Amino acid sequence: MPSHRMPSEADIISTVEFNHTGELLATGDKGGRVVIFQREPESKNAPHSQGEYDVYSTFQSHEPEFDYLKSLEIEEKINKIKWLPQQNAAHSLLSTNDKTIKLWKITERDKRPEGYNLKDEEGKLKDLSTVTSLQVPVLKPMDLMVEVSPRRVFANGHTYHINSISVNSDCETYMSADDLRINLWHLAITDRSFNIVDIKPANMEDLTEVITASEFHPHHCNLFVYSSSKGSLRLCDMRAAALCDKHSKLFEEPEDPSNRSFFSEIISSVSDVKFSHSGRYMLTRDYLTVKVWDLNMEARPIETYQVHDYLRSKLCSLYENDCIFDKFECAWNGSDSVIMTGAYNNFFRMFDRNTKRDVTLEASRESSKPRAVLKPRRVCVGGKRRRDDISVDSLDFTKKILHTAWHPAENIIAIAATNNLYIFQDKVNSDMH
Amino acid sequence: MMLSKGLKRKREEEEEEEKEALAVDTWWLDPGHPAVAQAPPAVASSSLFDLSVLKLHHSLRQSEPDLRHLVLVVNTLRRIQASMAPTAALPPVPSPPTAPGIADNLLASSDAALSASMASLLEDLSHIEGLSQAPQPLVDEGPPGRPTGGAPPSLGALDLLGPATGCLLDDGLEGLFEDIDTSMYDSELWAPASEGHKSSPEDGPGKEEAPELDEAELDYLMDVLVGTQALERPPGPGR
Predict the structure, then answer these.
(1) H or E segment at A74?
(2) Is the minimum CB–CB distance between B14 and chain A shorter than 8 Å?
(3) Predicted-complex ipTM score
């Protein structure tokens, strides 16, 4: 983010997403802007830069809208960005706010025609009497210009707030999910969508559960999963029925009776679900844990990792200040061996599934200088406290790492800390504010 | 790899005082607090109950409530209420605290009022979203009601949620309007002047609707716009 601008609420980053090669990184913010970063090719002239990310393009994706019928303002905050697989020289992405999804095309222009017959260099019409011969305009190189244009607007598909979008592996369709419904769209058709999940009860008084996240399977274009506020996952097969209200598989872990409290349901609410790159597993995030599920086993997750179990005794306070409703995202690394998620105090956590080791790191200016190695952090709950440990009661709950992304192939991660973006790379850690 | 082994350092004694960064008043969890010391966990539950009711009310007051937040709070409220009921299957609630009058009133009235307010608040919600089948009568809202007689202040929060609204037409409202020609809505009615239509009944006494459109028609129009109703023609230029 430019350092001369005072940080405002509009700059709060609301989503982060690498494209399929990792060359581009898109962020969306509360003010409806999208900023795309591009990784510089590693050059022998400047070996220290080692493929850093620089701003590539910035554009206003969504504007605040006023719904006159319901007298409601529709927030311009970008909830999610998803890249389309690249099919030609242009890049495309979908960005969505609460109600409307837009398809943006990003193209580069590095040549421009020169030598027009009727116009001069500034574009003014020439005095025709001075034109004595004809010339053919030629394309000359120019400074790279990145142009972004909206190609499709998918509006009026959702009554409730959109929480997820996911592009199908068929590259032709995508789905969008709100609290109660999931729609399937064709990327080329904007005036209609196909409703594939509807959990709205006939009587709204009976509403007890909402959809919290959804994603297409990375390889099987007929499969998708959606998570609920009650902590369940439903895998659906679009070949089985047109309306996928009936799931193919239901993944649910029984409540642990020893940990039962008034807040059991709230902390079991799944805030994010991600298929592994292999397509064999799913990763879910609830308030206190991340869980790995095997698609072949519905009864319970195969792995559970504690993100910040020290908060379990503080749930009442976190309920009062609404922190218990925070929605954290989770991410796989390229080889599905490490998973990552954010926490409070600008901490984020990584879990190695093979070694079972985990680490807590911090994304902040104070604790990380460019190209310095990140120092692991520790939260102490009581007892002997080492220097540099943070005590639970000192955690800053306003500093939440809700959005994180992992490069599809390399050990590069993007961490959104409120209005700052941090990009960490393996071995050579570079950060950007 | 990012997972470095961590720096070795000598164990040192605890140096600083732990700071209270989580600035939340949690007096009801503090065993040393006089109110808590006197009262068994039943008081803790009722404070949690009040907190949840306030959260619910606050959530509903949003122009467009966060449905997930709302549903989670409602479900939590139901759990709390169930644990406060004398016949609850959950761990038994100890005998009423030292202010039995207030607690009894709260428990007795909370059951009836809570069910009623649950019904009404979820009805409010579905109305706000514009897909409700039930017309929401704005006219009989009036100012937030205060119970007559010396009822404890905590009941006021429940009252603010509004009275239970009976649904004259539980379903099939759309059926009444099947024959409406949508062309009557493709007009300047949709200009900013229409923003006088307040959808939230909480915002005070009901306002007069614009003469051209009434409540049920607005609901139908919402359905048309979001595609749950079949369109007779493609969406107009206003969208």
Answers:
(1) strand A72-74
(2) yes
(3) 0.90
